[in-house]
Amino acid sequence: MKEDNISHQAKSNQDTSKNKPKLLSLFCGAGGLDIGFLENGYDIAFAADYDKQAITTYNNNHSGEKAHQIDLLVTSIEDLLLLISEKTENVQEFIGIIGGPPCQGFSRGNASRCHTDPRNQLAMKYAELVNYFCRVSNIKFFLFENVPEILANKNKEFLKLLREHLSIHFNIYEKELNASGFGVAQKRRRYFIVGIKKEIDSGGFMFPIPSQEKEKTVADVISDLPPPSFFDRKNIGQVNKFHPNHWTMQPKSKRFITGEMPEGGRSFIKLDWHKPSRTVAYGNREIHVHPDGNRRLSIYEAMQLQGFPKNYQLFGSLSAQVRQVSNAVPPPVAFALANSLNKYLKL
Predict the structure, then answer these.
(1) How do residues 46-60 score in pLDDT, each as one tens digit?
(2) Out of 101, 187, 191, 225, which residue is the most buried by the measure of CB atoms under 10 Å away?
(3) Which domain holds residue 114?
């Protein structure tokens, strides 16, 4: 996969998408999952997310204004179908649904996580949407993504119910994948469910197999980058000439002078040049420390650790960009999953 060309190719793909298999992307975020499917010959005919800045990012990187700001938790399925029908030529042409409902209620990164968190209901809404579109369109498959903590024992009953709903019309296959096995310079474990419509499933869908090659390291993807710009409230409109997302917070702690970081905790995790990155999932004050120890990573460096195309751009405030890059599915992982579905369904 030629990462440098992905977003340009994505625009070209969407411009000639008339005969391509059409997908509905739910909880699309900045588009990390969608990139992998676009590069496998799909057309994202309609995308939705609650995050306004993520929608801006999506539509600025992909042609056609396909992404729309929608709160899927409170929007009825009928209203969503009406909007999709207004924006697409024929809703019956959809062959798949992809998406990763927000996972804050399950994630270890949320110190106050709880299995009863209202946001967890977005996973059930996803299942409801999958089943509805299976009846009104030609959906052949779905792909669901979430954090592996959803598998924890305390979520057992919730996950059992989710599986039951997702299995009404589909045979489901489950797998935890680590992004480092797919050319991503990051240890990032995520849980995937693939559903294949029962009427067409011959059984035995296989998830992509991790590469046996040496894992990419932090040095492999960010060691040759120039220095980033520092966030400045007095000059909020400044743009780094190398890349608009190559900016970070001004280092203030004395620790950035010495380069010595405390053991444990989440606020000062320094990356190692010679290893894959820790999981790119940050709070505003938890962006990993650059391996040199003198500052935190820039947004662009985090994007490269996620495997985003080099010319992809995130929009919004610094905190909005932190959120977008943290929530994204690494595009190379999405590419591998889309490729496995292509081969299995012979699309």
Answers:
(1) 999 999 999 999 999
(2) 101
(3) 3-205+329-345
